[in-house]
Amino acid sequence: MSSRHPAPRRLAAIDLGSNSFHLLVANQVGGDLQVVAKQGEKVQLAAGLDDDDLLDEAAMERALACLERFAPYLSDLDAGDVRIVGTNALRAAHNRQTLIDRAEALIGHPIEIIAGREEARLIYLGAAHALAEVHGRRLIVDIGGGSTEFIIGERFEPLALESLHMGCVAYTQRFFHDGTITERRFRDAELAALSELANIRRPYQALGWQDPVGSSGTIKAIAAVQAAYGDGPEDIVTRQGLMALRRRLIKCKRLDKVSMTGLKSDRARVFPAGVAILCAIFDAFDLERMRYSDGALRDGVLYDLLGRNTAEDSRASALLTLRRRFDVDMRQASNVRATTEHLCAHVADVWPMSQEQRQFLSWAAELHEIGLAISHSQFHRHGAYLLENSDLAGFSRPEQQALAFLVRAHRRKFPGKELDALPAATRSTYARLARLLRLAVALNHSRPEQPTLDVRLEADGDALRLTLGQAEQPLLMADLEQEARYQRSAGFSLVIDT
């Protein structure tokens, strides 16, 4: 008899970088990833940003054409097994939602914009897995098209994360915009990079490291060119080799004349800016050498995806740290969470929710009072601000926005404006989650020792009927009747029965 083994879980990540788009597809084999497919294309999204930070149509068309080629790799994958993240160029673009809407319609999966420090954390996660055999403290550097990330960490734990506004596409436009390469322009680019590095130089040097590592395509290309000219091994960048490469680039005089053994033609135009940035990094951190590692953002996205909704979920750890930092009353938070879960179970047949959405509701219940650390007045607004603007490991900007909305919506007037700011496809669900949270908060308003569970909730479409199982309590009834008025003002029906 032949035994049949279940198919391995297949995961996919797409990194929408400022210079290149990358696709990585892998099978989960135990706790590791077995690569199935890798694709990368130079889209140069950042080159399509004008002076007003608006993406032009040509850049959008390049992006969509690339994603159309990536789409077949995602066609059979579940939504929870795919993550697509946008970085600096999409963070900067004021009209990013236009591209995101078109891209999501094309590829069939949501696109998340991640903050710079979250990008740095994911880069470190990818690099750390690629360097798992090396012990000691590492400095990881990733030069992208629009930003450069710097991380110091040990094993799989980052100790310092930063994302600076300098990248090979952005610096090409800024310092080599007319195609001319001179000593003065090269030096201006280096000085601009040194100015960016000034804020992190001392704290990073104080932390220290034993192993400087570069993880980007720019650093890989620099190492390859050095090796081709006999200035070092192909996976190491040396200060001496970097200075020799700098001199060769200045002798080229023009970007369209940059052609070197080991350098791909599609990277040639942005190569001098990348070299200038790395020269500044070597100078700022007194480096003599840096090795190249293949681990990158897309690898980190996949490893992070493996840990989601498990004990290793970085989001849960980030929120636990936040609750402790702002001294949240955990008994009240746990009571409200238990009541939301109880109410969720009652309406599950009529209001279906994904595991992820239920998780966000539980997190919002645990964090709904976080704003009290700032002021009791308008604390729901303060809490929403903290959640939307903090650096939260594991969260994309849309996820933080959704969590902030739930905390903002847990009391007082229902926030229609904030609801309208959420993606159209999620508004109905998050309005329902907010209504459940509001009821749970009202039911626990007296801050009982145990969560309030002696209630029944029924849903008929978007209409709710709450039946109290306990004897009538005047204060509780007053709170619930006020809540019914708030929901009615927002266009929702809520009936309270005793």
Automatic annotation (TrEMBL):
Its cofactor is Mg(2+). Homodimer. GO terms for molecular function: exopolyphosphatase activity. It is an enzyme of class 3 (hydrolase). SUPFAM superfamilies: Actin-like ATPase domain, HD-domain/PDEase-like. NCBIfam families: exo_poly_only. Pfam families: Ppx-GppA (PF02541), Ppx-GppA_III (PF21447). Its EC number is 3.6.1.11. InterPro entries: ATPase_NBD, Exopolyphosphatase, GppA/Ppx_hydrolase, Ppx_GppA_C, Ppx_GppA_N, PyroPPase_GppA_Ppx. Residues 315-483 form the Ppx/GppA phosphatase C-terminal domain. It is a peripheral membrane protein. This is Exopolyphosphatase. Belongs to the GppA/Ppx family. Its main location: membrane. It is found in: Cell membrane. The keyword Hydrolase applies. It comes from Chromohalobacter moromii. GO terms for cellular component: plasma membrane. It catalyses: [phosphate](n) + H2O = [phosphate](n-1) + phosphate + H(+).
